Amino acid sequence: MEIMHFTNGINPLVMEESIKLAVSEAPAMVATVVDGDSPLLPLAEAEVEAMLRDALRMVGAGVRQRVDGVLADLRVGIIAAVDDEAGQPCLAGFIQYKPRLRTERTATIGYAAVAPAYRGQGIFKKMLNELKAQYPILGLDCSLELVPMYERLGFRPEKRQGAHVGMATAPLGGVTWGQGQEFLDNHPLYQRAKERIRTTHGKATRDAYAKRDADTRKRIEEINAFLQLRADEARERAKASRAYFEDGCACIHTDKTLQPCRPDMPDAEAVAFYEQHCKCSRNYVEG
């Protein structure tokens, strides 16, 4: 198994096979709830193909564009696992990602998949380790069902993104970028999928959209409840391990070091901050 990392152009076969694999997993890739037998499946497949193809065309393209008024280099990379032991090389899996802007060593994973025949062999972890070597701080969004898998790989749930759970290995800095609904609505592939659905299902098309929207709302409620539960659990753990102060701030005392509940603040700054503002020796109160 060969792990290949493309940043300055992409092998055309890897590109097409990655798109094909992603499209086959479209229900898990889109941020709405679309079942494998839904009349709207072609729309989900068109969305994945349009978005991923657009991203992969930017690998090594040197695109510069204004984001929030600032000129930025828009970079895309892809890591592919290729089974080269058989006579014909075969794509086992891929991870497409975008380095985040205005920060360092941080990236957002867009699309990722492992082919069914190669699952359970640690291939995704190998690709992820390749990515982490350059970008140790990673963010992604996934379906609720995949949260336990990503937690085992070091990700933690952070927020809701559509009908997906946003996860990260550490607090994300910078900003991400990408195409939105307007891009899809104007994309010929997406437009043809909509027309094909209308032609095939006629008046039942409206019911299909209504079901998708209802299922998505239900999933959003489930995700919100899940995130609230995790937040409550985190607070309970914090109460057991933190020293609280009268002015409301808190420190974590571990191995005689002072770590604030401020992940954006380096340790040295944290110590100085608390020495100046918290005066722990006077304000300390058992929590």
From TrEMBL:
Residues 38-182 form the N-acetyltransferase domain. The keyword Transferase applies. One of its GO terms (molecular function) is acyltransferase activity, transferring groups other than amino-acyl groups. Keywords: Transferase. The keyword Transferase applies. Pfam families: Acetyltransf_1. InterPro entries: Acyl_CoA_acyltransferase, GNAT_dom. This is GNAT family N-acetyltransferase. It comes from Stutzerimonas xanthomarina.
